[in-house]
Structures
1.
Amino acid sequence: MEKLFASIQEKLQFFADNAADQVNKGNKAAGARARKASLELEKLLKEFRKSSINAAK
């Protein structure tokens, strides 16, 4: 679960950096990278939720 948490933090930082570049600089490529990262984050967060529920049992 620690490795999963580290992956989520890393991907979240990547998303934040690219989303900021799109918003502040109008960088279209950064927007595409941010959107892709958001989809990957969604998968990681669902996996974290499952792991968290199993650990609570």
Note: Helices lie at 2-25, 28-56.
2.
Amino acid sequence: MRTFISLPAAVAASLLIAVSGQVAPAEAEEAAAEGDMKPLVLVAGATGKTGTLVVQQLQAKGYPVRAFVRNSAKAVERLGADVEAVVGDLKDPASIAAALDGVGAVINTASASGGPENSAEHVDFEGARNLAEAALAAGVGQYVLVSSRGVTDDDHYLNRMFNNILIWKRRGEEAVAASGIPYTIVRPGGLSDDPGGKQTVIFEQGDTQSEGIWITRADVARVCVSALAHEAALNKVFEIHAEDGEAQADFAAEFSSLSAS
């Protein structure tokens, strides 16, 4: 089932309520005017904390957005009535294929939510793989995956606490990279709900540190959306966290400095 609840990009942007990490309303309206030039973006996990901010960032930047959700009522509650919502499940490849019609890019923020049906194995691994394979078949140009720091450490304490969640996330990364779709894999540190755009976002590679470093969900959303606009972000895997300092207006230089996978 699909629920279509969309408005023209310029109208949607003008109705945005200012939220942490978003661009100013005037900039949102200007970006929305260019919305027809930007790809339709499917956001998986769109009603989660990070996914909601990704949707808001995309709207603010003038991207047409489609939310891939399991509950249409929750989508309206979390995202508002100006977002097109398509009901489906990452465990159901047929529902993914239906949601990808006309999509040019995907951002996957989905993660395990508990219970055997939505475990890390099913969502962070199999769901990430299913979306990558369907997106490749549909001709999608970029897949942005939100993963986590620490995925290369099999002995990480989060694996002991949450049924090997980081191991499954790493397998999800590997499946996306192996699918053949152009990808960007973002590994944030610990996530906070503080306002974004207040610190410098640090980009690293090698997954050398995973504890005691943080980043706001809003800044993770900013990085994910920015990756869509920069070819230098393609086929790269990197960690991010935030430190005190001036917030970047754009991440072009950081993407360019990264090594390809």
Note: The chain has a mean pLDDT of 88.
